[in-house]
Fold this protein.
Amino acid sequence: MNNSNDSNENNEDNTLFLTFRLIKNFEYRNIKLLLLKLNPSVTIKEVKELIQNEIQTQSKFRAIKTHQFDSLKIYYKPHGMKPNCLAINYNTDDDFLDDDDKTLGEYNIESESEISYFNMEDFLVFKENPEVKF
């Protein structure tokens, strides 16, 4: 009898609440936030498709609809240190979510993590000269 309740509780426990930082411009820190509730079994490809759909359908993202996003990178995990740069964590290269077939769970993404979504070409230019303008 309690199995259905237990499975619902387990589904709730597995739900990830994630903040996606949609970065249009690194130098001027032109960033929009998108909050999503996802299951750890969702693949990176599915995450990108979901974000693109949100960008195209929500009016608050009108300014970034035509921007070419192609890469995901962990910005912050709960109980960890936030990076000094407010735009993106560019100090490490080991936290890219670059395998579209892997799931969020396989990348050990925790609930309340922040993930940057951006254009890789723009990121590489910024990483060479991480100057922030106002």
Remarks:
- The mean pLDDT is 88.
- The two ends are 60 Å apart (CA to CA).
- DSSP finds three helices and four strands in the chain.
